[in-house]
Amino acid sequence: LSMENDMRRALDRNEFILHYQPKVNVEHGRIASMEALVRWQHPSMGLVPPSRFIPLAEETGLIVPLGEWVLRTACRQNRAWQDAGYPSMQVAVNLSLRQLQQNDLVEMVERALADAGLAPGWLIIEVTESVMMDDAEETIRTFRRLEQMGVRIAIDDFGTGYSSLHYLKKFPVHSLKIDRSFVREIAFNPDDEAIAGAVISMAEGLNLKVVAEGVETVEQMEVLRALNCRYMQGFLFSEPAPAETFIPLLGKEA
Ligand code: G
Ligand code: G
Ligand code: NA
Ligand code: MN
User: Fold this and answer.
1) If we measure between CA atoms, which residue out of 185, 252, 180, 239 comes closest to residue 212?
2) What ipTM does this complex have?
3) What is the extent of the structural domain holding 151?
4) Which of 38, 40, 69, 211 has most ligand 1 atoms within 8 Å of its beta carbon, as the pocket-test mutant?
5) Model's pTM, two decimal places?
6) Is 31 within the bounds of a domain?
7) How many domains does the chain have?
8) Are strands 123-128 and 90-94 parallel, antiparallel or unpaired?
9) Ligand 3 center–CA 235 separation, angstroms
10) Which residues form the EAL domain (predicted)?
11) What SS3 string covers 128-169?
């Protein structure tokens, strides 16, 4: 309960911050998008990772106002990068099931984009397969409205849930993120290589983009590249870091 109260206060006191982790297009090495990942800058505990507070935020419903703050902040940051003249990048935000169950989610997203002055096509919403399992008809309607608005939808941690293939047919999905558990041993485990290869071929056939998550070594990158994986994310390129960290990396457009 004290943690819950702490979190409520933390929202008012602006103790949450966003880090960003790039997804890189390995064909030319440029950043295709930035994923926003929330952290809690706690006055006494220091930087608290989302694994320590997102589950409680979901249970208590605090994820709704927290998630709105994340979305608004990420959209504003992306607009600021555009205004500063950096090469175009999309911004990705993770959404919990609890947020998708809000009747006004679509309006909330619309307002966040409008207030930031960001066109919907710059926003990617990341959801896990488990989100798609819940009350599928209602969720599909929500996703259709988001997609009609121009927002892009990514399936996070792809391959760790179930019914993935069925839901791929029914949901307006634009990209798949291959879960890091398939990437970790990909350089020496032929099974992981086969699974990643199959996901990439399927995605090509379905016209979906594929992002490999958790790429930490050059060897992993090379195996994935040979499988035609164009987008990668992981410590090899960058850890999640505050927005300012990327200023020297981004380079201005000519
Ligand atoms: O950044 P880190 O690896 O600690 O993230 C751990 C988990 O927290 C990831 O699964 C990530 O998707 C989730 N997460 C990070 N930021 C957010 C957020 O803003 N909203 C939601 N719902 N989940 C987030
Ligand atoms: O579930 P989700 O994909 O949203 O989780 C994102 C989290 O994964 C980030 O918070 C980040 O800390 C972690 N992460 C990102 N890249 C790597 C990586 O290369 N290796 C490992 N082990 N974790 C990573
Ligand atoms: Na994610
Ligand atoms: Mn993921």
Assistant:
1) 180
2) 0.96
3) 2-173
4) 38
5) 0.96
6) yes
7) 1
8) parallel
9) 14
10) 1-254
11) EHHHHHCCHHHHHHHHHHHHHHCCEEEEEEECCCCCHHHHHH
